[in-house]
Amino acid sequence: MAHRWKNDMTPADVTPKSLFLNRRQLIAGTAGLGAIAMAGGAQAQDAMTPNTLEEITTYNNFYEFGTGKSDPANNAEAMVIDPWTVTVDGLVDNPGDYSLADLTEGLTIEERIYRFRCVEAWSMVVPWQGFELADLLAKVGVQGDAKYVAFETVVQPENMPGVRSRVIDFPYVEGLRLDEAMHPLTMMATGLYGAPLPKQSGAPLRLVVPWKYGFKSIKSIVKISLVAEQPEATWNNINPREYGFYSNVNPGVDHPRWSQATERRIGGGLFASRQDTLMFNGYDEVASLYDGMDLSKEF
Ligand SMILES: Nc1nc2c(c(=O)[nH]1)N[C@H]1C(S)=C(S)[C@@H](COP(=O)(O)O)O[C@H]1N2
Ligand SMILES: [Mo]
What we know:
The chain is an alpha+beta fold. It has one domain (11-290): Alpha-Beta Complex (Sulfite Oxidase, Chain A, domain 2), CATH 3.90.420.10. The chain is built from 9 helices and 14 strands. It has helices at residues 11-14, 17-22, 53-58, 71-75, 100-104, 133-140, 161-164, 178-182, 234-238; strands at 25-28, 35-38, 85-90, 96-99, 110-117, 122-132, 148-153, 173-177, 187-192, 195-196, 206-208, 221-227, 262-265, 275-276. The strands form 3 sheets. Strands 5, 6, 9, 10, 11, 13 and 14 form a 7-stranded mixed β-sheet that branches. A 5-stranded mixed β-sheet has the order 4-3-12-7-8. A two-stranded antiparallel ribbon has the order 1-2. Strand 5 and strand 6 (122-132) form a beta hairpin. The longest helix has 8 residues, at 133-140. Molybdenum atom binds at residues 61, 118-120, 214-215.
């Protein structure tokens, strides 16, 4: 690893003192996280305050379980996640069908509190646990001619009403350029609020790319392929004019049907004002990945 990313959002460091002093709720996490102070009402829209577990796990996009925001919470319990096998293939030294335990063995699990911005212009702040994708890639041995990483979600028609009704094409697939995949911000999440990832959040293993629109963060991953050509991506396939392969959060490039300049923080309350969307969702350290690219064209 070249360098480890320094978490800019631990609750103690970044929650303004006034929020600690005025807090109305104290959410106690389980192992590994301890307590996180939460602000109630309008203050909950503060950029650095994590959303509640309730908010994060009841307002979801996971079309395998339906297109409604509450469908994943209602339906995902049926997904079978144990045993879980991840196929690693393509341009790697150590391809194979890995059990989740074998795949993650030896990798450092850390807490990362990230902003999360959906292309639909809502956002949350989420306390994930997981490891850097770069560490997994080092473990499986990326070969020199690999240029992209492709991901695929599990398909369990018997357990997934959205798959049965074919609301979109499945399996859900996504991809990153190799340098994006290797960036220390890019993580594979295995937990949320100090507990294993809930099924509606993409258990047992999902991608989290905090400077990209949420649909890049593919859930319940069963396949990781190192490839030479830009892989297919579900929303890019559905409508490439509306959903680019890169899909970096960019307040200056509107979706054809709505503005991306501002966002609604979930939990902000009925009268909360929208907040400005930040370039790269505020993660400026990724800017150099796109040097020389016109991000209004390669969006
Ligand atoms: N397999 C799969 N992954 C997915 C999706 C999906 O429908 N299926 N939805 C994406 C979208 S649009 C978003 S915004 C995020 C939502 O993650 P969350 O529900 O944990 O907030 O998951 C992404 N990953
Ligand atoms: Mo999304």
